[in-house]
Request: fold
Amino acid sequence: MGGSLGLESALGEGSTFRVRLPLQISPETPHVRPERSGRLDGRVLDVLLVEGDATVTNAIRGMLEHQGHRVRCATHGLNALAELAQDPCDVILLDLDLQGIDGFQVAQLIRQGEGAGEHVPIIAMTTRTRAEEVDRGHQIGIDGFLRKPLTGVQLSAALVAALAARSETNPA
Reply:
């Protein structure tokens, strides 16, 4: 590749490795910045993020906060239900592969607890999106699906779509 590798080492002091590669950014590929317009015309969302993996939670929380949203986190389904009972949110990002009760059951319990005219958008996050699972999710009231790993742009688009769908079905 036309580069070089270097190593400097001193016993008891440590080592330094250097890698130099003469890479160029292609002029045809513009640098794409993450969208900060996920605020939906300046609106800051209260997001409940339900995810059992701490690393994934930190990554998604960072993307949401970068877009300007407020984020509360729950590590499992029962914790999510308790969070919602204490304080409502604008949208729920829900991992389907939770320990204990899974995301499908959590979504079903949320929908059963909603009153007339209430509908908080639920966006499922999963590594698996077979057609049967998507159909099952829609039947129990999941509004959208995101396949992990996801990007900030995908996340922003899913939030916009879920909230737009809510306003169409709930024009209050």
About this structure: The chain has five helices and seven strands. The chain has one domain: 38-169. Residues 29-39 have pLDDT under 50 and may be disordered.
